[in-house]
Design goal:
The chain is mainly beta and 428 residues long. Helices cover 10% and strands 39% of the residues. It has three domains: 102 residues, Alpha-Beta Plaits; 130 residues, Immunoglobulin-like, CATH 2.60.40.1220; 183 residues, Galactose-binding domain-like (Jelly Rolls). The strands form six sheets. Strands 19, 20, 22, 25, 26, 27 and 29 form a seven-stranded antiparallel β-sheet that branches. The protein has a five-stranded mixed β-sheet with strand order 1-5-2-4-3, with helices on one face.
Length: 428
């Protein structure tokens, strides 16, 4: 009854204001328990958007921008319906004669892809009493929430857990916001070498460049034993622009850097110690450390990426050669410290993520790695590597333009560094 009373009180003045301000949206579905977003304008010209923004500011309101395609929307976000009549009055007095009202999303909508056994459909580990934890994130920052945190606008978000994920607990517990607007996408759950979940979120549409991104993994997420996380995880950053040039026919990294972006510690390299190109004179490499393969530093001292794209020519097959090197060999084989390499392919029709390899997957089946400065960067005197191995993915259907992102990360530590070198790609 109370909810009905509030809605009636709101509707009466709303219909009155509808005579002065044209309202778009389904007013019959307004709910006092939800929040709403009011859009007062959508502009191609940034000056017009700024003028509208400033008009609302002068009226004492708190507007924000929302990017949509090539338009810049001016909106009022997170509005309770009881304040709508008062806000419409201020909007009218600011010179606006029409608005869009839509429900504010509080979590992301996503489809789920499971590769391996990193997720369960029922709670089956009743003896487990340990809290679910996120032990590593990509991006990872030393100062969570700092305005200095930046990350590529179209790069995937990755979360490593200490257990398998109970699939039914995903709904409403993953929220990604771009400029305060919920972002939809694809969640891929891979199985790590320890059998636990590695969750990747890829947005359906590229995140706005220069946008404020906020991620919430809510404690309602549960593991195979039904245990929740102790608290919500919050992560925020500002997006950096992606490449403006295409990645095409430079599959051996012999022809410059068009369409190639390194984030963290990464570069195109030449023969050095045990690391020599698979073919030709160059390879691409990234590390989880500080100034190991370049003058850069890994994000949060634990992750780096190579982003290739946009790739305009459609492809359904990706093959490549890789060499995985780590200071964690062999003293941490079998431990929770598991340097990890991944690849993500995405485009307008979806995304696909796979774990290429890790320290625990390789185990002791590695060779001594020598003659490379700063490797090993800590621990004992031994660093190991796989040598060049081949990896391929078939039946890719992400549309075009597409992007390929290679990621190397330390799981559960930021001390013992790893390197992923990639060469001789095949796209067909």
């Amino acid at each position: 009854m109370k909810k009905l009373f509030i809605v009636i009180l709101v509707f009466l003045p709303l219909f009155c204001y509808a005579q002065k301000v044209k309202i778009y949206g389904d007013l019959s579905r307004l709910d006092s328990a939800k929040q709403y977003r009011i859009q007062v304008g959508s502009f191609k010209n940034s000056t017009n958007a700024e003028n509208a923004f400033n008009s609302l500011k002068r009226a004492g309101l708190d507007p924000s921008y929302e990017d949509y395609l090539d338009l810049k929307r001016v909106v009022l976000a997170g509005i309770d319906i009881k304040y709508l009549p008062l806000l419409l009055d201020s909007i009218y007095n600011s010179g606006f004669r029409e608005v869009w009202i839509r429900e504010e999303k509080t979590s992301s909508n996503f489809s789920v892809v499971v590769i391996g056994s990193g997720a369960v459909t029922e709670i089956n580990d009743l003896g487990d009493r340990k809290d679910l934890e996120i032990v590593q994130t990509i991006p990872s920052f030393n100062q969570s929430g700092s305005a200095a945190n930046t990350y590529q606008s179209n790069a995937p978000l990755v979360f490593f857990f200490n257990d398998k994920i109970y699939l039914d607990s995903l709904e409403n517990n993953i929220a990604v916001f771009a400029n305060e607007r919920a972002v939809d996408g694809i969640v891929t759950i891979n199985e790590g070498a320890n059998g636990y979940a590695v969750l990747t979120f890829t947005a359906n549409d590229p995140l706005p460049e220069g946008g404020e991104i906020s991620i919430i993994m809510r404690k309602g997420l549960r593991d195979a034993g039904g245990n929740e996380m102790r608290e919500d995880l919050h992560l925020s950053y500002i997006t950096e622009p992606g490449s403006k040039t295409n990645f095409s026919n430079n599959y051996g990294f012999e022809s410059g850097t068009d369409g190639i972006i390194f984030t963290g510690d990464g570069a195109i390299g030449v023969a050095k110690g045990s690391l020599v190109p698979y073919e030709g004179d160059h390879y691409a490499a990234i590390s989880t450390g500080e100034r190991i393969v370049s003058s850069g530093m890994a994000i949060g001292s634990s992750s780096s990426q190579i982003q290739l794209g946009p790739i305009q020519e459609p492809f359904s097959f990706l093959g490549f050669h890789y060499d995985f090197i780590s200071a964690e060999f062999n003293e941490f084989v079998g431990s929770e410290f598991d340097g990890n390499a991944m690849v993500t392919i995405y485009g307008p029709r979806g995304s696909h993520t796979e774990i290429i390899t890790s320290v625990n997957r390789v185990g002791r089946n590695n060779s001594r790695f020598t003659g490379y400065p700063r490797m090993p960067d800590t621990g004992d005197s031994y660093a190991g590597h796989t040598g060049w191995l081949y990896y391929s993915i078939e039946n890719i259907d992400v549309g075009s333009p597409a992007y390929i992102i290679f990621t190397v990360t330390d799981v559960s530590d930021d001390i013992y560094s790893s390197i992923l070198a990639v060469d001789a790609l095949e796209l067909k």
